[in-house]
Amino acid sequence: MKLCLNGHEWAKRQLQKQGTAFEALDNGFRSCADPPKLQATCDRLGPEDIDRLLRKWLDRLPLPLSPKDREAGYDWQWSIWQMEVSLTPIFDRPQKGREFFEEVMRDNLDLSRPDRLQLIFDRRVTKATLGPFRTRVMQEGVHPSLHRQYKNFDLKQYFKEGRGLRTEGTFRNPKDFEVHQGLANLPYLQRLGRHIHRRRLEVERVSHNGGLSGDSIQKVVQPTVTEEGAGTEVWRSAGDGLVGGAELVHPFDPGISQPRSASSRGRPAGSRCRLLLGRPDEL
What we know:
Blueprint (H helix, E strand, L loop, with lengths): L6 H12 L3 E4 L2 E5 L2 H10 L2 H12 L8 H5 L11 E5 L6 H14 L6 H8 L11 E8 L2 E8 L2 E8 L3 E8 L14 H23 L5 H8 L21 E8 L20 E8 L5
Antiparallel strand pairs: 1-2, 3-7, 4-5, 5-6, 6-7, 8-9
């Protein structure tokens, strides 16, 4: 017997019973009037709920084991055939979300290499560790998706409905994480899936912040001048929350006498103008 249960749809039915308003995003959530209640509802789904649903059907379907057989101790044991844990951050500006996802694909194609997998899965991978480990980029129409594989576990990312960065972690064999397939291990796999999502998001955030914003680049390539048109030095201490800098050489203001430097070989010395790169949240 096989039971397929969509946790998002289960959570939607629970919110409807409680009278909590929400906006759907396909089979997920785009918004909710009470986010803490939504999270608590998702956390509540456990082995007991699934077992109760299965037991309801045992009395309705024609099965080899009768109620008398079950009373005598012959019963069904439930196992996890496949389990998915998902995370869907919603972007207020969808265009920025799509740009972020495209940069994630470009900058993290090597995350499935054995020497980097531990950044996400927090597990040491050696030459003796059985794979496979791989990264795939697949495309359906104009919608790409990024797949990272650790043994039988698949970590898939795509931009869902033009609004959210959907990440789906699929456990196909819990033994890859040293637990058996019994339904009692559902809470552990839930926590493990969320832990993988948090580590993955942190790795992508750090790699994404390695680039300069457009405003920061302009500050580097454009000379800094005063209102009178003369070059000026722009530098502030670390106490202002500013980090980094570039030192560029500009000619002195024409109205100022130009001294000569021994290293300039007869050329006028340049003024050194330090240009600010940006604040920490721009790097």
